[in-house]
């Protein structure tokens, strides 16, 4: 994961090793390399600049730590800042509702249906919940079939209504079905388009308004880099969502989305998808990810 970024940051920070003292000059040189590594990873220019400015301020104010190796100190400062940028401590999802309703949003192909299945599987196996999946993509019959396949695979019931083309009505009926049948979590998989458009935004906004979910999650393909960040902003403007799901982190993504998205929409990344299989889901821990990136 993020091998290229890891390698570049490692190289940048190693420059300082061998210097007895952190001086303004070698800090500046190192941070230039760090910034370059972030830009190469598809982190937005402004974010990369702010990042290195913050690390610089801290580095120059750290007299107490001069006894440490300067290289190690810089690694620590970069790691702390990376953790901070990606969201500080992990936050869970709200499962307090009866049932808890979780609305999935995002573009087509982002991994919504796959992640809906993964989340249901995770809640069933790890949180002792009884989830219901609800198929609300009224445009693509194949999407409904796909959710049924996923449901069968993990042993979770899927609610759908093929003749109905009103996603608000289907989601409400799904929630009523959950209430009547003892399901305590409802995961609503919605339609997505290939790009942000008004109709899709209106549709998801209407569903959101009608069902008032405990959690609205925005699913995004991490391989799409800065586009992922722009899409997140568009969805957040309309939905004020609660958290981000970053999928396809197993691919050769450069990592820019993982690093930038929190600071742009100010919402935590809650889970990551790391493969096509139903168990390829991880809770997102910014500090662990920073640890991984910096080795
Ligand atoms: P949706 O249109 O948003 O519902 O997207 P899908 O769930 O259908 O996913 C689109 C494609 O991405 C499918 O081929 C999935 O198998 C694949 N996919 C989803 N999540 C991941 C992931 O975390 N890693 C990888 N490698 N593939 C994924």
UniProtKB/TrEMBL annotation:
The main location is cytoplasm
Q: Which residues form the SRP54-type proteins GTP-binding domain?
A: 268-281
Is the keyword Ion transport in the record?
no
Keywords recorded for this protein, A-Z: Cytoplasm, GTP-binding, Hydrolase, Nucleotide-binding, Ribonucleoprotein, RNA-binding, Signal recognition particle
Question: Anything noted about its domains?
Answer: Composed of three domains: the N-terminal N domain, which is responsible for interactions with the ribosome, the central G domain, which binds GTP, and the C-terminal M domain, which binds the RNA and the signal sequence of the RNC.
Family the UniProt entry places it in: Belongs to the GTP-binding SRP family. SRP54 subfamily.
Q: What does this protein do?
A: Involved in targeting and insertion of nascent membrane proteins into the cytoplasmic membrane. Binds to the hydrophobic signal sequence of the ribosome-nascent chain (RNC) as it emerges from the ribosomes. The SRP-RNC complex is then targeted to the cytoplasmic membrane where it interacts with the SRP receptor FtsY.
Name this polypeptide is given:
Signal recognition particle protein
Q: Which organism is it from?
A: Arenibacter arenosicollis
Gene symbol of the encoding locus:
ffh
Shown segment, full-protein numbering: 1 to 295 of 445
